[in-house]
Amino acid sequence: MxxxxxxxxxxxxxxxxxxxxxxxxEREGQTFEAVRRKYGIRGSATVQLWVRRxxxxxxxxxxxxEKPDEIDQKKQMQERVRVLxxxxxxxxxxxxxxxxxxxxACERAGxxxxxxxxxxxxxxxxxxx
Length: 129
Prior knowledge:
Shape: elongated
Order of helices and strands: EEHHHHH
Number of helices: 5
Oligomer: single chain
Strand content: under 5%
């Protein structure tokens, strides 16, 4: 967008122009900033966005290089996360069952206020105080 005399002018680029610019950038190996200045594009990240969208993947691609022990460590951590997630799931099921059993026990014992029963001495029977 450009503002002149209080009016905002929106600049739109055609798909063909974007593709041609990305091909030129990839072919000649110029920087994003150089191409942006050459064509007078005002947005600082516009060319990068076009390269990500229309490029062949040779620019802006992140390549991660790892040592073998780092790869093993990553696998171990992923397995640990899986184990912890299963454990959490099991604990949620156990908690739900415990709550249901407590409600049933309170209902059978004639206790209407389950929350009050849980608060009183941590849910244990009275200690005779």
